[in-house]
Write a structure and sequence with these properties.
- With 355 residues, the chain is α/β, with parallel strands linked by helices.
- The chain folds into three domains: 2-61, Winged helix-like DNA-binding domain superfamily/Winged helix DNA-binding domain (Arc Repressor Mutant, subunit A); 67-177 and 337-352, 2-Layer Sandwich (Nucleotidyltransferase, domain 5); 186-332, ATPase, nucleotide binding domain (Nucleotidyltransferase, domain 5).
- The chain is built from 13 helices and 16 strands.
- It has helices at 2-9, 14-21, 25-37, 104-119, 155-163, 172-182, 247-250, 252-259, 264-289, 300-303, 306-318, 321-324, 338-352, and strands at residues 12-13, 41-46, 57-61, 67-72, 78-84, 90-97, 125-132, 135-136, 141-145, 150-154, 167-171, 190-196, 200-206, 209-210, 293-297, 328-331.
- A hairpin with a 4-residue loop joins strand 9 (141-145) and strand 10 (150-154).
- Helix 4 crosses helix 5 (155-163), helix 6 crosses helix 13 (338-352) and helix 9 (264-289) runs parallel beside helix 11.
- The protein is globular and about 75 Å long.
């Protein structure tokens, strides 16, 4: 609680911390002492004098004196990694090819990249966060990620053992949602982030809490069927083995193939057509959860504009006015690093309790 307040509010006095957390001043003083001993917190001078008496001493979280290693393995060609400080500022970048790798080969490449990133900083590393495709449980076990060849892989446990540093692993769409909520200024009362990359997935935050689902598969919208036989459009085969999934028309490769060679007007029409399919898939989700914000994470030149507007219009047409009123569809604020920064948030939350 103390760290979370200092992270979001900045330098505060012990009295400020007591008021914000509801803890007694004695308890806050003890906790600040423990955090100072752990070198996570330090005194930051005197507060501005606003009343008669001795000015209070401020304390601050030492966000620039510790590092987090974050890796995004959701891309089909390369895994991207970074060393960040505790506020998500990227200090170093590294990448490694994963083109053609599967299963244990991918795991070994990930371990090697993490080692390289840890060696790239002289700061103490609080933990390692990994954003991965697939269904991943709260313990960091990849239940299934077919595109990576991972099935029931205890990835967080493996990384912790190999690196000697606490590791946290989560679905890349979920990490994107956490990043936008924690670092990107998104409202967390009813938020859905849609990641459009090699695949399609969604992360959902309701009332400040990530929605996982009993099978850790909440947000797997990419494999909702949106094109049926006889609909006038031939449903393409999906990686999951079925036909007509949202992923077959909305993934980044599918969108690029759809607009390749088209003039701007026809390209806009093709993207709007996909947007209407997306809106049809999202309308019941928005209505069921009373969502107020949908953020798109992926190639801006494809998602922003006709596609996003068509999706919003379709949701409005298919939902009660009270549900669609105030709903926004926009690009994620954190851009292409959103999953990476979300992986860092996994560490902030898992190791320091900061969300």
């Amino acid at each position: 609680m103390v760290l979370q307040h200092l992270f979001h509010a900045g330098p505060s006095s012990r009295a400020d911390l007591a008021r914000a957390t509801g803890l007694t001043r004695v308890t806050v003083s003890d906790l600040v002492g423990e955090l100072m001993a752990a070198e996570l917190v330090e005194e930051a001078g005197l507060a501005s004098q606003t009343r008669v008496g001795k000015p209070a001493t401020l304390v601050r979280m030492r966000t620039d004196e510790f590092a987090i290693v974050a890796v995004d393995v959701a891309d089909d060609l390369e895994m991207r990694g970074a060393v960040m400080n505790l506020t998500g500022v990227i200090l170093e970048r590294r990448s490694a090819s994963q083109d053609g790798l599967r299963g244990e080969e991918t795991t070994v490449a990930l371990v090697d990249l993490c080692r390289e990133l840890v060696a790239a900083t002289t700061l103490p590393v609080v933990g390692v966060g990994v954003a991965s495709p697939g269904v991943i449980n709260a313990a960091g076990v990849v239940v299934q990620a077919p595109n990576r060849g991972w099935f029931d892989v205890p990835l967080a446990e493996r990384l912790t053992a190999e690196l000697g540093i606490p590791a946290h692993v989560a679905n890349d769409a979920n990490t994107s949602a956490l990043a936008e909520y924690t670092l990107g200024g998104a409202e967390g009362s009813g938020l859905l982030t849609l990641t459009v990359r090699h695949g399609v997935g969604a992360g959902i935050i309701l009332h400040g809490a990530l929605v996982r689902g009993p099978g850790d598969a909440a947000g797997e919208l990419g494999h909702v069927t949106v094109i049926d036989e006889g609909s006038g459009e031939e449903p393409a085969e999906c990686a999951c083995g079925r036909r007509g999934c949202l992923e077959t028309i909305l993934s980044a490769p599918a969108l690029r193939a759809r607009v390749r060679g088209l003039d701007p007007q026809d390209s806009d029409a093709a993207l709007a057509s996909v947007g209407r399919r997306l809106g049809t898939a999202l309308a019941p989700v928005v209505s069921a959860l009373d969502l107020k914000e949908i953020l798109l994470c992926g190639p801006e030149e494809l998602l922003d504009g006709p596609l996003a507007q068509a999706a919003l219009d379709t949701i409005a047409q298919r939902s009660m006015p009270v549900v669609a009123a105030g709903l926004g569809v926009r690009m994620a604020a954190l851009g292409p690093d959103v999953a990476l920064q979300g992986a860092a948030v996994l560490v902030l939350s898992g190791q320091l309790g900061v969300t």
